[in-house]
Amino acid sequence: GSLGPLRCAKALQLTLAVIKPDAVAHPLIVEALHQKILAHKFIIVKSKDLVWRKQDSEKFYAEHEGRFFYQRLVEFMSSGPMRAYILAREDAIGYWRELMGPTKVYRARYSSPNTIRAQYGLTDTRNTTHGSDSVESAQREIAFFFPEFHVQEWMERLEPSFRAGQ
Ligand code: GDP
Ligand code: MG
């Protein structure tokens, strides 16, 4: 960049983003979301399509056990294929959550109509995407979906070169 040595890009952050079964059922929505990820300058570090067993769903959402929506959520998330991404960007966690919008689809439509959940969400359960909500949950969720991936190693060995290329 023209700022030379003054230009000092912030470190990239990793987040776990998931396209949930309601959206994966519609190839055009998956394609639109994939394009949105690229348009917003995320680096796609890894991605895969997968289907959860019910026990995967229960384990991933253990923090919500006992809530009124838990059974619905667990059944929905194991009802069909999903696509998971490890995404890298400056402020990836917050940025992806901004793009997703509020958890509840009707609130999203009212308050943030340009967000993913407002545009594609069907119900409060079937709300199109997941995104980690903190550095700790990103670590845990990346390990849950991509057990072979080493966050620390990526940050030390690969993040500097990706950042230099930003
Ligand atoms: P998120 O981080 O925005 O995905 O929201 P939470 O971590 O609070 O909830 C996890 C998921 O549970 C949400 O994405 C929804 O699919 C579902 N969920 C959360 N709150 C509600 C609710 O009030 N009603 C219903 N039906 N589902 C909910
Ligand atoms: Mg959450």
From TrEMBL:
This enzyme's EC code(s): 2.7.4.6
Reaction it catalyzes: a 2'-deoxyribonucleoside 5'-diphosphate + ATP = a 2'-deoxyribonucleoside 5'-triphosphate + ADP
Keywords, ordered alphabetically: ATP-binding, Kinase, Magnesium, Metal-binding, Nucleotide metabolism, Nucleotide-binding, Transferase
Tree of life domain: Eukaryota
GO-annotated molecular function: ATP binding; metal ion binding; nucleoside diphosphate kinase activity
List of catalytic residues: 130 (pros-phosphohistidine intermediate)
Residue sites binding ATP per the record: 20, 69, 97, 103, 117, 127
Cofactor(s) it depends on: Mg(2+)
GO biological process: nucleotide metabolic process
Domain Nucleoside diphosphate kinase-like positions: 12-153
Family: Belongs to the NDK family.
Record protein name field: Nucleoside diphosphate kinase
Organism: Coilia grayii
Full-protein residues shown: 40 to 205 of 222
